[in-house]
From TrEMBL:
Residues 101-194 form the Integrase catalytic domain. Transmembrane segments: none annotated. InterPro entries: Integrase_cat-core, Integrase_H2C2, Retrovirus_Pol_polyprotein, RNaseH-like_sf, RNaseH_sf. One of its GO terms (biological process) is DNA integration. It comes from Elysia crispata. This is Integrase catalytic domain-containing protein. One of its GO terms (molecular function) is nucleic acid binding.
Amino acid sequence: MQFDQDTLQSLEKVKSSLSTDKSGSILIKNNQLVIPRSLQHKCIDLAHEGHLGIMKTKQLIRQKIWFPGVDAMVEDKIKNCISCQSCTQTNTQEPLKMSPCPDSPWLEVSVDFYGPTPKGDYLLVIVDDFSRFPIVEFTSSTSAKSTIPILDKVFSEYGIPATLRSDNGPPFNSHEFSAFAKNSGFTHRKITPL
């Protein structure tokens, strides 16, 4: 079997896992035939005849053959296959939509936790969505039981917002927090964090 200079340099990197068959004419790497450059495209074409997709084609090839750059060559072949591209569903995500800016301060606030800090505490960060004014309070826990009194204290000082925005973290999706929102009179809007 004849190998070009580039392939020989790549084989040098994996020489500890190379061997030959009994006749010494076939190069083997971990029970896979090592394919010379002149046959590599033909092997990829044969493995791709069923249009199995990138992962399954790679699995099929790895069962029997190996050569340097085989994965990249399979990916390139399939990405440029017109039949595969016409049958592949594209996952186009909906663009992110910006939330409209509130009309006045403290109408809408966003709340989240940061931490734990090196001391083991957490920071409850409350941001006014209009002015971006932050309020930061230390807490020893992220539970609803410790979050609600802090929010109650902040709301008594700055007023109750119309909307409180948070992620779906445990303190914010508890029954206690839902009851707190209802009793306080604000709308709790759960958002997906970025």
